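[scheduler] slot 2 assigned
[scheduler] job type: sequence-to-structure, two independent chains
[scheduler] chain ordering preserved from manifest
[runner] begin chain α
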Amino acid sequence: MNNTLFTRIAPAFPRFAPLLAACALAMAIAFVPGTAHAGADDEGDLDAPNAAAGAPAASTAQDDSSSDDVVSIAADGMSASIDGSPFALENFSRSQVGSNGDVDGVYEGYRYFVSDEPGSLGVIATDGLTVVYVPAEVAEAVGFDAGSSESRGYLKRLLVALDAQNSKGGATLSVEGEWVFSGQPEIEQDGVAYRFDQELKPGEYYACVVGADGSDVTDASNPSYVRLTHADFATLSPADQVSVVGAPEGFAALASFLQNIDYSPLWVTLKTTLTAIVFIFILGLLAAYFSLRIPARAQDIADSIFTIPMVLPPTVCGFLLLLAFGKNTALGQWFIDIGFPLIFSWQATVIAAVVVAFPLMYRSARGAFENLDPNMLDAARTLGWSNAKIFFKLMLPLSWSSIAAGTVLSFARALGEFGATLFLAGNYLGVTRTIPIAIYFEWMNGNTDVAIFWTVIIMIFSFIVILFINLWSRRTTKYRRGADA
């Protein structure tokens, strides 16, 4: 399994991600004074004596995967422990990106915000190097020995498991490449300085990556260029002081998932679709009736205008609506002036749904009206019926089966609208985030299980819609056959 696939699958199966990560680890070490290096291909004796923390390391390479025990990860993904380890991790956090500007006019390098107090364990990951900083006083207090293969093995497995759990689709820590452990707040490797516990602002501590000469190492033209992937931070604590409550399993896991999920996309979708279908139904019938009462040449133009949203990509429809209702247009500015801005509001989701689903209702209604016997309509007029009476008493009842099918199809189209809604209404939780938008952003954020849940919900709705159309069509067919007999 490659690394990209692992990062996609792990969030959906949190119980198995630590086991997969633990089974993948096989590391070894080579030492320089003050810093412990772990190479991926070295092998050694697990029972070899361990050097004291901070002491020069032994020359014998040792296997950093010192135990086969499974990493226990808390349900919230913020703490983890291993049986036999004297220490555990808690308060885990992950920074996918950092900042790269000056601080009070001084360039401090590419920096990640850590905490409002010093002493956190820090990890900075690049394509080929993983730098781990464990403050010396913390290491001594919890029993972490940077010169011990066993200690490094425990810590690496904890970090890899928690990092995978919190990756949300991003890059993850890997046993490939080089790992460096140090108790010093500044570590220099290949012309790059990795600095931890840096108080760049009062009460704000950062981890920084900068060239040894003070240059920007994220600049591809820099000879010391490194590709930073992310950073992790946590509190290293004695194992007996960390309580790791794992995720529930079986029906308990399902109940917990359903209890904790945010259902606002469902309510926003239903509210939007039910409101939109009212406008779609009325506008579709009026447009179909209107298009049949104008000259033939004008009908072609009107029909093209009413149908074009059905053939345009939804993103194009959304972009055109954004141009029409944006603040730079007279219409958009008028709505803003009256205190009712449309862009990025719930009303915008309704407008987007109406525009993309309207053609289905229009085409269904027009086709039904065109199939009516014109002689029957003329006979009604000779009896003195008004156009309104003919429409409501004759045209609608005779065309109702097709109109109902068009209404249901329009409802389904509005239910699944994504592109135009995202362009015009955006993605605001509880306001404009519909189910299709929730599926996309949950998947992008690595919440595959939530994306799957909403996918199942939308499939159920679609199934019900199709089943309704089939049952209605069968009922209508039987009625017509009975009438013909």
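[runner] end chain α
[runner] begin chain β
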Amino acid sequence: MSGLDDLRRLQSAAQSFVREPRSAIGMDETGTVEVRVDETGRLDAVEIHRDWRRRFSPEAVAPAVLAAAGDALAKQAAAWAEDVRRPPPPARPAAGPTGPAVRPRFDGAPDPRLHDLLRTVTEAFAEIGAYAEHVQASAQRTTTGRSHSGRVTITLTGSHLTTVEIDERWLRSEASGRQVADEIEAACRQAYRAIAADDEATSTRTPHLDEVRRLARDPENFIRRVTGD
């Protein structure tokens, strides 16, 4: 097998580790609450219409936030599934004048860079078990977050928003849609910081898998890792 064949095989293996959805926006059925989730499904932003009081009661705010978050996740999952089914675009021809084919510099004698990358990918496969255990445990983990004022408390199951509790006395006062949204976002950020700390500790168990995922996200860096260009 040539060095070029090795590189293509490595790229394919690395890309199998990276199947990331895109961010998505969802709304409740009234269109009063809008939630954006990022690529990992985490709540990224909340918008609550300034006339929310005319649209529903204070008791309906928390359920509307959950409904909007669920809508965003459903749209994200649908878009991700469509991306997976869609065939990759054809490779673009190289720019500039054509000339004789250039053989990869690592054809012939094994190149140390290719050997190192092969070892990294092999070790990454060996780490998949530990990573899968972490993913399974993370999906069932519950994390609580509170805003600084204590007016909003949220619970995440995995990284997804599953409960929202809002101080109803505050809601019934002069709380604006923007203020409520800010409190929800703050509570989520606190919970996500706790999750990030746990994930960082786990990543020390899968350093090669993390490296392959980083390389797969940046194909140009992948090539430079092998060729040195």
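[runner] end chain β
[qc] chain β: The longest strand covers residues 160-166.
[scheduler] slot 2 released
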